Amino acid sequence: MRKKICIGIALVLLLLCGCGEIPEALRDDTDISGELVPVAQFTNLAVDLSEAEMLRTDSSAFYFVTRDWKPEYQVMEASLYRMDLSGGKKILQGVYGDENLSVRFLLADSECNIYLWAGLSGKDSYLLRKYDAENTLLWETDVDLSQIAGARPDFILGGIADGEGRICLYDDLGKIYLFDEEGNFRKLINLEKGTLSGLLATGDNIMTACYLARNDSGRGMVLECVPVDLDTGKPEEESLITLAGNAMPFLQSGSGNSMIYIDNGIIWEWNFNSGEKSALLYLDDTYVSIEGTEVIAVNTSEQGVEGLLLRDTWFGCSEYAAILYEDKKLLPEKKTITLGTTPDLSAESMQQFVTRFNRQSKEWKVEIVEYFSYLGRYGNFLDEFTKDILDGNAPDLIDVRSVPVELLADKGFFEDLSPYFKKSAVVNKKDILDSIWDAGIYGKELCFVIPWFGLDSYLIKKDNLKNKDWDIEEFMRLLDEQRESSVFFYRGSHTERALLEYALYANMELFCNPESGTCDFTDGTFAELLEAINRRQDHGTRVGEYKDTETWERLLADEILLCQNTVRSVESYYRVQQALGQECRWVGYPSQEGQYHGFSQFMILGMNSGSGQKEGAWDFLEYLLSEDVQNWSQSSMSVFPVREDAFDNYISEAYDEKGERSSLTEEEKRALRKLAENAHLHPYRIFDPLYDIVLEESDEYFAGRRTASETAEIIQNRVQLYLDEIMYVTVQTGH
């Protein structure tokens, strides 16, 4: 039977690590009779598990494997580590491999015996070894599968060891290789179901093969589990488990004939005998707050989950979470804050920060409300969001990239955040980059917080610029002058639509004023722009087929006129500077203001002025802008932090892809900071439905089915109708 971490040992470990007293609800003398709820107690581990592969946990330690590339052998070498929970020390248990041995992987059984599978240099055979938990070699055997029909030993990827010491390995085609407790090969099992997603020891004499496939509905996945009798090699009745998520789930052998997996933020146990599943732990429970993607090992008992081993790649830490059960009456009550977003925006990324905030907050719990947009780009989102406004159920916080920001702001929907910054001991106006602060202002109020950003800009060869200003007139002149020889580059495209979208990015105010609800596409300027773009017809090689280095070479050779670059890290900026030197200029988007660089924003958060939880909503925003979170994020998210101190730290300490110093010069640092200081958050990048209308109708002109003047007239009518409808909605809501 598999060893478990008992509650008593978990408590001892917590005490040894300085995590506090035994919870009241677990004392024998308690007379509290309320509801018991799970509570996670976290211990930071002095070991980096970011690239580790979990093997097994027992009552005193857990075992994991790291892999390092050995160029002299041209293999990934596996090393076994034993982590002593009581002491929190990382102990190198042994490195497996020499010039004659290339370790492919390691396995562990329920008694923490270790099995090694390795290739032998210069031979067609392989080596299978067994060590005990103290790293003593118990046996080894040479394995030659060359005479086994259908065997692919060079492509064996991993495996399991069951409670009887038998070993099951599998290859890239899902074939399973069974070895007995002495390491002797017994049989090849081919279920003919394709690539395995997991292989588990799920009971006496039972191995379960797991296959993951997308649900026919297009949403979620289906996990097909096939138990196999190891004596006969025959599959038993398979089970189908429907998953809500769209990624590979966490899988682990359970007690008896069962499997533990995580789906939709819940730890489940599936019993293959009964075909029933039971929820062991809700990871988003108020006093747990664990993200499912963090979990790399689960320990269970008859009571449920006892402990979790966690690997948080976002925050760069490894933790052990002991799950205790306390009386709910003894715990501080938390109030709920709702955060509205869409799955295609920030829901997944934001969940990482929500989880961390909920874990450390004693007063608040943030819940993400997802608004779906399956019926169109944002139409269905607006329907659902508008309904919640009318019903008085609008979220306390909302990612505003999918809503008509200008119109809602005009009606007072967003809380002015300036007073919160003035009172805060964590973050003030002086702590935030000026351009980011200005981007959050609408009218005279600070309506939005932008926690992280990228820079969206364009490069041009300096020799091609005739005028100082880079406005729409200069843009049209350049299109005509370079019409025959150059290619426009925009996110892999050089279509007429791409040119138009680029031209409008910072110039929509020439044609439309949503504050007044008016537009004018018919004064001749818009038609002139359409005609200038249409005169330029590029039909050469697709620029999107070029690698970055090829694109930059073509830019220097005048084969590409404009090159788009999204800079989300010092590393990406450094690569551009190294390639192009002083010959090119970050010109950005044409604008009446001259140069205009855009923010490639990670999220934009606004607070509902009608929220009943403004204090908690601000606490969350304050948390995102705190020094610790801002410095954590830049190392894991490939985005720029918005705090001055974190931004300066980042551009001073960045590394290139090889792990070496990027060595930005002081001049390059000043230039990068200047890009950030001169970037803008244009409201129409939030208000995308306007772009959809303009681009959709302009396609008809570029296809030759309308004149430029006719197209401008149609766009005028559609945009005005849209503005009228939005104005009506906002008036009706009272915001």
What does this structure look like?
By secondary structure, the chain is α+β, with helices and mostly antiparallel strands. Among the domains are: 335-451 and 602-653, Periplasmic binding protein-like II (D-Maltodextrin-Binding Protein, domain 2, 3-Layer(aba) Sandwich), CATH 3.40.190.10; 455-600 and 683-728, 3-Layer(aba) Sandwich (D-Maltodextrin-Binding Protein, domain 2). It contains 18 helices and 40 strands. A hairpin with a 2-residue loop joins strand 28 (441-442) and strand 29 (445-446). Helix 8 packs antiparallel against helix 9 and helix 9 (525-535) packs across helix 18 (708-733). Residues 1-33, 87-92, 373-379 and 539-544 have low confidence and may be disordered.
